Amino acid sequence: MIDKAHKPTEKEILSFIGEKAKEAWLEIKQFIEKHYGIEPETLFYGAKYGWTIRYRKGGKTLCSLFPEKDGFTILITLGKKEFEKALSLCDELGSKIQKLLRNTKQLHDGRWLWIQLLTKDDIDDVKKLLQIKRKPKKNKS
């Protein structure tokens, strides 16, 4: 996943992240595509991070997914107001995400939450953070 000359296919990514993380990967991607209608773009982030799947619309990034051996990391950057809203919902979030919120330093453009997912355990918390980052579009029923 760090070979700039080879853009990985979805099949290669799923094989790389492993069976345990595969369900979480697919659920996050389906959630984003259903609720936000954003097409993913595959980008090379450099030798340290390798390839990433970024969800961006209107010049604003919703999140980026970084495949790793036997898991993946999702990056969600929260601005000041978004971060305050996330803190106000802390009681509804699991201990891993609560700790991450409390310990992530404020940078010039917000707080960069690097959330490693090895299984589906924290998937609901990630969905809540994405909905704080950007309101989902209305579904036409």
How are the secondary structure elements laid out?
Blueprint: H1 10-17, H2 19-36, E1 40-44, E2 51-57, E3 60-68, E4 71-78, H3 80-88, H4 95-103, E5 111-117, H5 123-133
Antiparallel strand pairs: 1-2, 2-3, 3-4, 4-5
Characterise this structure.
With 141 residues, the protein is of the alpha+beta class. The protein has a single domain (10-133), classed as Alpha-Beta Complex (Aspartate Aminotransferase, domain 1). The protein has 5 helices and 5 strands, in the order ααββββααβα. The protein has a 5-stranded antiparallel beta sheet. It is globular, with a radius of gyration of 15 Å. The model has no long low-confidence stretch (mean pLDDT 94).
Offer a quick outline of the entry.
This protein is α+β, with helices and mostly antiparallel strands and 141 residues long.
CATH class: Alpha Beta
Strand order of the largest sheet: 1-2-3-4-5
Question: Uncertain spans, ≥5 residues at pLDDT below 50?
Answer: none
> What average pLDDT do the residues reach?
94
Report strand %.
Answer: 25-35%
Helix coverage percent: 25-40%
Given the C-alpha coordinates, what overall shape results? globular
- What is the rounded Rg? 15 Å
Q: How many distinct helices?
A: 5
Q: Separation of termini?
A: 39 Å
CATH topology, by name, is Aspartate Aminotransferase, domain 1
